[in-house]
Amino acid sequence: MKDINLTANLTRVRYASFIIFFVLIINFFLCFEMFAFENFKFSSSSIKLNNTYGFNNLSETNSLSDLHKAQNLNYIAFAEEEIVYAKIKSDNVYFYSQAINNDLYKIFCLPKSYFVILTDNAGDSTNLFYKASYMDVSGFIKKNEVYPIIGTPQNPFADNLTFSTFTPNGIELRNSPSNSNSYNVVATVPFSETLNYYGRITGEQMIPQMGTTWYYCKYIDENSVYFGYLYYEYCYLLSDITENSENFPDYEGELFPQYVDIIPSTDQINLSHELKLIIIICACIPCFIIIYLLFKPTKLIIDNGKHKKKINKVKKGEYYEYDE
Q1: What is the value of pTM for the model shown?
Q2: Nearest CA among 40, 85, 78 for reference residue 58
Q3: What is the SS3 assignment for 49?
């Protein structure tokens, strides 16, 4: 009876060990898939970008740091050598300081027929703006007011426009087109100074009956560079703005497509390769222990008849019982 119980217990232990071993094997493959497949996913996603959107420098991208070089926070941008220009084909196209459709954020009106450089989506909730740059000014521009092109213009900006001032005592350069705010003065431009012209904007009327036009410009003195506004009535000798006759085919397709699913979240914990290896090894050790216990020879005491037990015969009334 004891031998039968021992055999049943051994059978149950082996079945339990087999189940534990099977579970550990599954956990091992899950760990391996979690680490190895995730790296493969980002690598293949980068190669997909390279094949689809012209990422010439991502053909061998195998790490998140390489992918971060080609994207801007939550949106994928073009690689550094891919510069996308957009043509201004109409009047009254404004450059904005923020991706907000409000006159308060207009910087200046861009000259018609010239270009801006598009760098990314603005990320605004209405998806109305691009991030852009014009000469050395960065800002935002409405998507429906520019036309992305394929190619590189020879003269993308009206960067040779200048004008001068004629106020004998100098004129105050302001960071907004308003004369009533005494806190918006950034510098004082001396008499007959030549400044770089960017565009014009409608602002406060500084002189009665003389209009509301202000020039957005750049003033360079010996030590600093200033950007701001000057009331146009104190300016003269503005260069003629000639039309840019360069034409290019329009860009087809969506610029800067959003692939949120392949952009790593900042909440993820990035484990090093050494730590991943340690985790896999720790998951394997119990497996080897279970394998050893499964195939370890079991020593059983078997009664082969050499040791005979003495049987005592006991009389119980009219019959006998054998007492082992």
Answers
A1: 0.58
A2: 78
A3: helix
Distant-in-sequence contacts of 273-276, Cβ < 8 A, 24+ apart: 276/35
Alpha-carbon distance of 146 to 137, in angstroms, equals 17
Domain at 78-157+246-255: CATH architecture: Roll (2.30)
pLDDT in tens, the chain (324 residues): 545 555 555 665 666 566 666 666 766 665 665 655 555 444 444 434 444 333 334 334 344 344 334 434 433 444 445 789 999 999 999 999 999 999 999 999 999 999 999 999 999 999 999 999 999 999 999 999 999 999 999 999 999 999 999 999 999 999 999 999 889 999 999 999 999 999 999 999 999 989 999 999 999 998 899 999 999 999 999 999 999 999 999 998 888 876 554 445 555 556 666 676 677 677 667 666 766 666 666 555 555 555 555 555 555 566 555 555
Task: Tell me the fold of 162-236.
Answer: SH3 type barrels. (2.30.30)
